[in-house]
Amino acid sequence: MAEVQKDTLGSREDTLRFLDMVSLFGTQAMIALGKMVNPATGKAEKNMPAARLFIDMLEMLDRKTKGNLNGDESKLLQATLTDLRLMFVEESREGQRTKDEGQKPAEQNPSSSPSS
Predict the structure, then answer these.
(1) Is the dihedral of CA 65, 70, 73, 76 positive or negative?
(2) Can you tell me the distance from the alpha carbon of 55 to that of 80, in angstroms, rounded to the nearest whole number?
(3) Residues 18, 73 contacting (CB under 8 angstroms)
(4) What is the pLDDT tens value at each position of the chain, 116 positions in all?
(5) Is there a contact between 41 and 106 (Cβ–Cβ < 8 Å)?
(6) pTM of the prediction?
(7) Quick check: helix, strand or coil at residue 33?
(8) Which of 11, 20, 36, 44 is the right S-S partner for 5, CB 3.0 to 4.6 Å?
């Protein structure tokens, strides 16, 4: 069974580092989802594979640290994952909708349709 960390100075520092890491991955995922401006380009750009990668890394952290996080760590990780998953689904649907609209079959020419 996993050993739970005691509240020591080292674990407080580790908690801060863990919270920073979750925030970093969350921010990178939001940039990749186009929800935040990319500081390198100054534009909001979507990169769904990169967003999926950051979400996957947070999910892996969730699995690997199960039962070994304090309340604050667990709450932030779960809230971040929930928000990112919802945003990812929304952006995926929007991307699919845009793709579908671009591939609509050509409408019939009204002059070629039968008259009533």
Answers:
(1) positive
(2) 9
(3) yes
(4) 455 555 555 588 999 999 999 999 999 999 999 999 999 999 999 999 999 999 999 999 999 999 999 999 999 999 999 999 999 999 999 877 777 777 665 555 555 445 54
(5) no
(6) 0.75
(7) strand
(8) 11
